[in-house]
Write a structure and sequence with these properties.
Keywords: Plasmid. The two termini are 23 Å apart. The chain is an alpha/beta fold. The chain is built from 7 helices and 8 strands. Strands 2-1-8-7-6-5-4-3 form an 8-stranded parallel β-sheet. The chain has one domain: TIM Barrel. 36% of the residues lie in helices and 18% in strands.
């Protein structure tokens, strides 16, 4: 599983973290997409930063092809399984596509089992912020996922850049160890140490 880190207050100090897709290479503007639904603003940012962006979210609940840069791989958030059709349309038009599973149940109307079964694309676990979500992403063999810093510890702890970098390294080691085999109970218990 490959992990990404979106924009956060420490992002300028995390650019040197290896083996993560770090903002702006992973581009996600939740405010513009989910709260404001300002797709025009989001598209403008995509085009302005297209040479820096590797992976970006495709705008939520848009069932047609928008004028987006072809050089970027798009994570299509799936709120309803019928939205897999937009992933099909994008792929038919030579876009690189990953389908995204919404970690928050209020943004989807299906189970994780239904999502995994219905998807014929690489999968992305959107918004991993708890140990349970990380375990779930590993258990269902998601290809990618984006994490919030809250996964790494309490608010006071994640203010410390050295703590964050250390926990990101530990998390990567755990994820790499789980690759290619079912994660053991010991590994899951060890995962709990990330939270402390």
């Amino acid at each position: 599983m490959r992990l990404a880190i979106g924009y956060n207050p420490l992002i300028s100090k995390l650019q040197d973290i290896p083996n993560y897709i770090v903002y702006p290479r992973f581009f996600d503007d939740k405010r513009a997409l989910l709260i404001e639904r300002n797709y025009k603003k989001y598209l403008k940012e995509l085009w302005l930063n297209k040479n820096e962006i590797e992976v970006a979210l495709y705008p939520d609940n848009v069932n047609y092809i928008l004028p987006v840069p072809r050089s970027i791989t798009y994570v299509v958030p799936i709120h309803n399984l019928s939205q897999l059709e937009i992933a099909d349309k994008l792929r038919e038009n030579n876009y690189k596509v990953i389908v995204g599973y919404a970690s928050d149940p209020k943004y989807r109307d299906y189970t994780i089992q239904d999502f995994v079964k219905a998807s014929k694309y690489e999968t992305w676990y959107l918004g991993i912020s708890t140990k349970r979500e990380l375990k779930e992403a590993l258990f269902y063999s998601f290809n990618y996922g984006d994490i919030t810093l809250m996964l790494l510890g309490r608010f006071e702890q994640i203010k410390d850049i050295n703590y964050v970098k250390r926990k990101l390294t530990e998390l990567l080691r755990l994820i790499s160890k789980a690759k290619g085999k079912q994660t053991t109970l010991y590994d899951f218990v060890k995962l709990g140490s990330l939270i402390r």
